[in-house]
């Protein structure tokens, strides 16, 4: 809040300073900044003519600004409004000198505000990209348990349940994650809120290094009567056959980002970029944007060739209702059932259109899409795999990934959503926002009551609920699905708050 107060104060100073400046130049000897402001506003309110503003003020303000050394701004730059006004009263400068000093001080305050915002973005980037030691501990303990305890190496699912993995009369959910704790919350919330847990099949996809801890956790914490499958990517026959487009695309994407984006320190060192642009570039460097877990959803038809329909879940969501009605939604021949993100009561979160993700200054984007078209969200999606197999969605996805790489990442900068918006264009069936509430990870103004009444809540953004930077009023919605008395949770000092 201190940062945003400083930001507001900086822009307020522009207005107050100019009003004060004009009063001082007009000959007012005893006038506080607030008093001057009142004297300038009063004529407008009462309909009288205000005094003229010297033309020199406009001339000075329109001149190019020079940067100020923040660490050593020099004695000529006042450090507060009070110092500024005291100096003005004592020296009685002419209009040009006054305007120059005023402009220099405002520029200095703006530089400080910009630096503070960029530092905040950098700290949040570091905090959100790091693995908390508690999660690292949990992974190591479970890996050790997997190697020493046969009960932690149980086949998942058991042999009697294997036929259910390809039975389309069951409700099939897919979760791709390398975070054991996050996956456990998704699984617990899914099964606990299901009205038909005996018909729930959760397919958990993980990477090779996380397979043992993930299998260990779900072997020792069964969610009977639901069926839980834990499978590493290298165990899928389709992946092991040879070249996999998603892996090749990730390698090229990582090389391009390294070449054209530089490190985080290089990004924040830029003096010309706006803070929000710097924030976007930092976010593009987040490990999750180059994680196989984030890219693999584009190959669901190949990974599950026998299934007709699945619901894909991100690992930063919490399920708060029975999801079986999703299978009753008429997809109208479309492939992707998703919540649109361009309308809703929360204007901060639900105001996303294609122009928020794609670069419409590039002709390839401008000639193929409309900037005002609604975007939609990943996180909780219904995928009709039968309809998907009849389309060219996956090929379109990789075609545009290649175009973006060839254009030095100028079509979009981060994540799998932009190419997803393109690939699924015309293949999206809009579903009720009740099924997917977004924004719990990047803005703290989310109504707790609204969040509690949503079917699925999504902690998309940097403030993940397992991080220290999580919003404390929202974290309990996630934490209530963790048993903090569990020996692994307790042993790694994972706490409720």
TrEMBL record:
Pfam families attached to this UniProt entry: Glyco_transf_8
Topological type in the membrane: Single-pass type II membrane protein
Signal peptide coordinates: 1-27
Pathway linked to the protein: Glycan metabolism; pectin biosynthesis
Transmembrane feature ranges: none
Biological processes, Gene Ontology terms: cell wall organization; pectin biosynthetic process
Keywords, comma-separated and alphabetical: Cell wall biogenesis/degradation, Glycosyltransferase, Golgi apparatus, Signal, Transferase
Main location group: Golgi
Intracellular or extracellular location(s): Golgi apparatus membrane
EC nos: 2.4.1.-
GO CC annotation terms, alphabetical: Golgi membrane
GO molecular function: polygalacturonate 4-alpha-galacturonosyltransferase activity
Family (UniProt): Belongs to the glycosyltransferase 8 family.
Name of the molecule in the record: Hexosyltransferase
């Amino acid at each position: 809040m201190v940062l945003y107060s400083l930001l507001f104060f900086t822009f307020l100073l522009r207005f107050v300073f100019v009003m004060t400046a004009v009063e001082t130049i007009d000959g007012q000897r005893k006038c506080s900044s607030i008093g001057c402001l009142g004297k300038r506003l009063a004529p407008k309110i009462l309909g009288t003519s205000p005094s003229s503003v010297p033309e020199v003020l406009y001339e000075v303000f329109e001149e190019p600004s020079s940067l100020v050394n923040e660490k050593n701004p020099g004695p000529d730059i006042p450090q507060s409004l009070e110092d500024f006004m005291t100096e003005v009263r004592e020296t009685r400068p002419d209009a040009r000198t006054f305007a120059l000093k005023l402009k220099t001080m405002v520029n200095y305050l703006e530089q400080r505000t910009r630096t503070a915002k960029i530092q905040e973005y950098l700290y949040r980037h570091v905090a959100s990209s790091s693995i908390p030691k508690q999660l690292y501990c949990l992974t190591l303990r479970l890996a050790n348990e997997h190697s020493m305890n046969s009960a932690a190496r149980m086949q998942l699912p058991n042999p009697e349940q294997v036929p259910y993995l390809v039975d389309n009369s069951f409700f099939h959910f897919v979760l791709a994650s390398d975070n054991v704790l996050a996956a456990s919350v998704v699984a617990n919330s899914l099964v606990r809120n299901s009205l038909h847990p005996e018909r729930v099949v959760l397919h958990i996809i993980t990477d090779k290094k996380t397979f043992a801890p993930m299998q260990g956790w779900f072997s020792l914490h069964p969610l009977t009567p639901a069926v839980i499958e834990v499978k590493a990517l290298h165990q899928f026959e389709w992946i092991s056959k040879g070249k996999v487009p998603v892996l090749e695309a990730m390698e090229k994407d990582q090389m391009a980002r390294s070449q054209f984006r530089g490190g985080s320190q290089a990004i924040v060192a830029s003096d010309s970029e706006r803070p929000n642009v710097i924030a976007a570039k930092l976010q593009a460097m987040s490990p999750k944007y180059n994680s196989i877990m984030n890219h693999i959803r584009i190959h669901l038809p190949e990974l599950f060739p026998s299934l007709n329909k699945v619901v894909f879940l991100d690992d930063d969501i919490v399920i708060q209702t029975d999801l079986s009605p999703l299978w009753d939604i008429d997809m109208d021949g479309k492939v992707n059932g998703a919540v649109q993100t361009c309308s809703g009561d929360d204007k901060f979160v639900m105001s996303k259109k294609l122009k928020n993700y794609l670069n419409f200054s590039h002709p390839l984007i401008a000639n193929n899409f409309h900037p005002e078209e609604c975007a939609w969200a990943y996180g909780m999606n219904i995928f009709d795999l039968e309809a998907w197999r009849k389309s060219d969605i996956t090929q379109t996805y990789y075609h545009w990934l290649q175009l973006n790489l060839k254009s030095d990442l100028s079509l979009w900068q981060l994540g799998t959503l932009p190419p997803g918006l393109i690939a699924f264009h015309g293949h999206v069936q809009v579903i009720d926002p009740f099924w997917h509430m977004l924004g719990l990870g990047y803005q703290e103004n989310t109504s707790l009551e609204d969040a509690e009444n949503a079917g699925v809540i999504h902690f998309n953004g940097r403030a993940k609920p397992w991080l220290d930077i999580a919003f404390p009023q929202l974290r309990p919605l996630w934490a209530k699905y963790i048993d903090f008395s569990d020996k692994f949770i307790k042993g790694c000092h994972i706490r409720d708050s």
